[in-house]
Amino acid sequence: MDGACFRETLRTRRRWPDVMAIWKKDIRIALEEERHVRANDRDYNERFSYADNRIKTAKYNVFTFLPINLFEQFQRFANAYFLVLLILQLIPEISSLSWFTTIVPLVLVLAITAVKDATDDYFRHKSDQQVNTRQSQVLIKGKLQNEKWMNVRVGDIIKLENNQFVAADLLLLSSSEPYGLCYIETAELDGETNLKVRQALTVTSDLGDDVAKLADFSGEVICEPPNNKLDKFTGTLCWKDNKYSLDNEKMLLRGCVLRNTEWCFGLVIFAGLQTKLMQNCGRTKFKRTSIDKLMNTLVLWIFGFLICMGIILAIGNTIWEQKVGSDFWEYLQWKELTINAVFSGFLTFWSYIIILNTVVPISLYVSVEVLRLGHSYFINWDRRMYYSRKATPAEARTTTLNEELGQVEFIFSDKTGTLTQNIMVFNKCSINGKTYGDVYDEFGHKVDITEKTPCVDFSFNPLMDRKFRFHDSSLVEAIKLEEPLVQEFFRLLALCHTIMPEERNEGELVYQAQSPDEGALVTAARNFGFVFRSRTPETITLYEMGQAVTYQLLAILDFNNVRKRMSVIVRNPKGQLKLYSKGADTILFDRLDPSNEELMFTTSEHLNLLGATAIEDKLQEGVPETIACLTLANIKIWVLTGDKLETAMNIGYSCNMLRDDMNTVFIISGHTMLEVQQELRTAKEKIMGPSKDKFSSGLDMEKTELYSSDSVFEETIIAEYALIINGHSLAHALEADLEQILVDVACLCKTVICCRVTPLQKALVVELIKRHKRAVTLAIGDGANDVSMIKTAHIGVGISGQEGMQAVLASDYSFAQFRYLQRLLLVHGRWSYHRMCNFLCYFFYKNFAFTLVHFWYGFLCGFSAQTVYDQWFITLFNIVYTSLPVLAMGLFDQDVNEQYSLRFPNLYRPGQLNQLFNKRKFFTCTLQGVCTSFILFFIPYGAFMTAVRDDGAHISDQQTFAVTIATSLVIVVSVQIGLDTNYWTAVNHFFIWGSLAVYFAILFAMHSDGIFTIFPNQFPFIGTARNSLNQKIVWLVILLTTVVCIMPMVAVRFIKADLYPTQTDKVRLLQQATRKQGPQEQNLRRVRRTSSRRSAYAFAHQQGYGELITSGKNMKKEEELALVFNMRK
């Protein structure tokens, strides 16, 4: 992490409390000003109550699950509301419904949610147990004993062996390597797979692996308290009346892996949740979708509407009691207290709150959870997102964000390992002006290289790397012909580096490289016969075409961020001095002052250019096509990378995010706030024109407004600009004074690349867009350095790649390849959003249609809080009669199939604009429900006023009226969901027709003689169903009601689709027209750039082990080396 940028971003912590949540942990432990740890003394260390090494992410246990889970569930407004209703229903003076009408749905909702929470927590327990039960060798009472990680304590001494994970934050005491050195891989911490060196204090490295000496070690460490700073540690070791300074170079952090080191011993300083890894995990922020937030608002509105209806009916009851009801008091057995009309209205208010409670849908929340769970399983089961090479399926790690996948406007992507494979490949080289690496056919035409292209045969080399692939055999022929410049080229690659070799078995070489591109170059030299075999502080040994050749190493001029090149000076066996250098071509010759022509000429005479290499961090398969498709869906993709400017730009060109035909590529690289401000203003003026101040930072426009009336914005849409900004400039641009202009310029550009950014800056950029654009953001990465960005975005996606699993563990969704993002968003995301919106519209419609019948009935029953429906119908309507058809639509519906979803990315646009479900849509569907309830009540009411049965008797009893309305309602909502369904499956048919069949079966059963005999008090209306539904007039009323309810909506939809078709309507018609021809694949052609020369050598390269190698500290003693060499012989 860059220190300067890190300090700059600290200024922003007050402005972004969610992003800076990790700093809250520092506040909580601020009381611990410094830590005292004494080795091998648990009694002393336990005085301070330091955290043990147990990790706990689970929320419940067997005893706390029920009370805590119920407490959490009743914090939801809907659940608490229905609990209050249940209590009200137990009061006989105000309840006209039995208690079971509320308790049955409430218990069902609570039970399903509890099962889901218990399942999630079980997997958290399982994950915790897997980590906590890992084994470590701990020095206890003078002996090394195997202990579980959770039993490790601060102050314990632990032994680690090669390739083992570090169990806690350790102070390195000694190791198998000379001078107490060891090598670690920190991929779980910072995403870097290259090795890092740690070195113990000299006084502790002498302890070696002598268990007795280590058991007697009684040093005390006084250090900083737990914090999240991965690159900083300050402390002091007090031992034998001496004090020794400690820094980060002597620490092994939890999550690291010991590499290329046989063993080491360490003293536990921080354990468990106080380790730097866990401190960096931050607090997981609960993510809610925009639909969730809207639903909560709508439920409050519905509750307010319910209160209004209750007040209206209560006022009506008061007036009716005063003017009409008093005539009936002497016939009713009321207590004196209830004769007061106002008090009667008060009781009626609560009675109607109970009766009309179904307008607030308790089953809505559990139905939404079921849909999200189903959508998550569809993602998990998608075979087209399964990566067979690593047997890695896509995984939805959360069930709460699926519909948000259909509304993404900004994607923030890491580069290395996300867009690229993070595997460097030696692709081509140029030696003495001749290019090697291309393949030609028998006619001399260049052919594309594929996996089927035959590889060069390296069988002549017994020390070859079998994973290395090269396709141009002419280079091998040049090696075999012993062409001097070709040999010298590979000799340079084999000598000029800081790689550490590890020979596990005879001929089985493993290179530990500080950077992947350096490893690729040395591996290439190895396969072409120049094998780097071993090194000492003074020598480098190569096997050149099978012959051992030793070079005397005189100096290493190591790579660093200033020099950007590396050189070695060696003496060959002939006694000649050689200087070998490698670096970017733009760097090597630019070191000389152009005015000094004589020196340049002299140097050029002796510094011969051997050749050039083409090292490629290969793009993952399908990355350019995926980016092109997502761009057509109006999704803006920003790349946030820790790589240097040149590397980031080259990847941008490879991905087609940058092109040579772009109008302008703005590079922001100012070192002061004024410079950055001026560069951003210049860019904005060039895009918009200096006179367009009216579109300043304060302008707030609706998303759906188009800028077509303004010529400048027309030009902005047509013209293509790119913005590239580096880390130190971004630190200034994120300040409060500049953040708005940064957002303005970035959003006017087609491509945005932020390079050399820290993990925290990644999160701040995401938070910036969330605040200013109010758009749904998605962050995707594969390393631990992407975790903060992933947690900050609305949706976090982890790539299971080369940089460990921290990104995956912190993500909401994970898969193995970037190209799967296209399918996740354009297919699963769009479908989930479409299904959820249709589900909600229908759900609110049917509940209003069902409930408001009681409202109309209140005006005709003296506002007496009498229900229209039978109590069992009220109980079963939402959980039995209409639950499964709407779930089937919400799970399986498709407006267009997956092929057309990918072929027409602009179908994704409605989700970004919130067009399918918003407040306007809510009012539309509720208005439809109100109208339907009006028709459902008044058509049967008007028909039955004068209707007679077949035998001439009046059809005027309340139960026949109730059965007619209930049957009409079930049929109407079933027909309506049939009209709302775009994609019919056997499940849809079964649930719709099955629900109708179940309704009639239960209806006749509840009114049957048998059930009356068993439960006469609960089912008193014997024979009502068969006496009502055997009358032709009843069926005619049901038919008329259904037609009047449905036909207006059918007409409106037909006219709208015919006169004002949406893009979805057009694509659906195209799909129907071409269904017999089969799906057509979309051809997203990759436009290759006409490349100007861009050099990006070693921009992923970091400072190597040059100083360490020449000092000899990392080398075995000569006697040890001779012994090992003789043993191998």
Automatic annotation (TrEMBL):
Residues 37-103 form the P-type ATPase N-terminal domain. Its cofactor is Mg(2+). It is an enzyme of class 7 (translocase). GO terms for biological process: Golgi organization; phospholipid translocation. GO terms for cellular component: plasma membrane; trans-Golgi network. PROSITE patterns: ATPASE_E1_E2. It catalyses: ATP + H2O + phospholipidSide 1 = ADP + phosphate + phospholipidSide 2. Its main location: membrane. Pfam families: Cation_ATPase, PhoLip_ATPase_C, PhoLip_ATPase_N. One of its GO terms (molecular function) is ATPase-coupled intramembrane lipid transporter activity. ATP binds at residues 414-416, 518, 559, 582, 641-643, 756, 762, 785-786. NCBIfam families: ATPase-Plipid, ATPase_P-type. Belongs to the cation transport ATPase (P-type) (TC 3.A.3) family. Type IV subfamily. This is Phospholipid-transporting ATPase. It comes from Cyprinus carpio.
